[in-house]
Amino acid sequence: MPAKIRLQRHGKKGQPFYHIVVADSRSPRDGKFIEKLGTYNPLTNPAQINLKFDRALYWYSVGAQPTDTARSLLSKTGVMMKYHLMRGVQKGAMTEEQAEIKFQNWMKEKEAKMAGIVKANEEKARGEKKTRLDAEKQVNEARAAELAKKRLAEMEAKKAAEAEAAAEAAAEAATEEAPAEEAPVEEAPAAEATEAPAEA
Predict the structure, then answer these.
(1) Alpha-carbon radius of gyration of the chain
(2) How many of the other CB atoms lie within 10 Å of CB of 41?
(3) What is the DSSP letter of 76?
(4) pLDDT computed for residue 179 by the predictor
(5) CA atoms of 152 and 141, how far apart (whole Å)
(6) pLDDT value for 74
(7) Cα distance from N-terminal residue to C-terminal residue, the chain
(8) What's the distance, CA 70 to chain centroid?
(9) Which DSSP state fits 97?
(10) Residues 52-107: pLDDT tens digits?
(11) What does the alpha-carbon distance between residue 142 and residue 72 come to, in Å, rounded to a whole number?
(12) How much is the pLDDT for 198?
């Protein structure tokens, strides 16, 4: 029975989540499997891989062929490196202690690299958040300045209207208080009595 190490797709549409399984190569992708070795979540950065290291190493050592993606995951988790070192021990190129030291050094370098990636991602996210907050602060300051300018213009218009109303009221009051001037009455000229001369 040709066994393969491959991925089974799970998760919602647009949000894939995979199980790493050992299955018969003739089985459907999401069908029956022999053993589940772990999970793989490609949506996180870096991708999250949970793997049963010893079982994955066992299946690979007994001839289970990984798919391209599964081979990449086995390489990232150190299964391929461990297998390579085990083959070197079997051929007499090195002792088990030397192989273990090499593997531990390789894992430390890998962990340091992953920690650097995580730190870089955190700094990038922090920088993006700071940029976003600064931009939002500038927008808020511009809005506040515009609102203050608008309120100042409204207050000045209100003061001008009040001053104009006060001036009109003062003018009306001055007009009412002024004494009304009487128009001079023209006296009619005294009628001259003209008497006709008496006839003698």
Answers:
(1) 50
(2) 14
(3) H
(4) 55
(5) 16
(6) 92
(7) 180
(8) 33
(9) H
(10) 999 999 999 998 999 999 999 999 999 999 999 998 888 888 888 888 899 899 88
(11) 51
(12) 52
> How many residues can be counted in the chain?
200
Q: What is the pLDDT of residue 182?
A: 53
Q: Which residues of the chain have pLDDT under 70?
A: 1, 177-200
Which 3 state secondary structure label does DSSP give 78?
A: coil
pLDDT of res. 159: 87
Amino acid symbol at 61: S
Q: How far apart are CA 140 and CA 130, in angstroms?
A: 15
pLDDT of residue 124: 86
Dihedral pair phi/psi, residue 35, rounded to 5°: -155, 140
pLDDT (0 to 100) of residue 120: 86
Query: Which DSSP state fits 196?
Result: P
The C-alpha angle with vertex 180 and arms to 179 and 185, in degrees rounded to 5, equals: 135
Long-range contacts of 49-57 (CB under 8 A, 24+ apart): 49/73, 49/76, 49/77, 51/20, 51/77, 51/79, 53/77, 53/78, 53/79, 53/82, 56/5, 56/20, 57/82, 57/83
The greatest distance separating any two alpha carbons of the chain, rounded to the nearest whole angstrom, comes to 189
Judged by phi (left if over 0) then psi (alpha if -120 to 50, else beta), residue 179 lies in: beta
**Helices assigned H by DSSP within 62-95:** 68-77, 79-90
Amino acid at residue number 183: A
Return the pLDDT at 200.
43
Question: 128-150 burial string, b = 16+ CB within 10 Å, else e?
Answer: eeeeeeeeeeeeeeeeeeeeeee
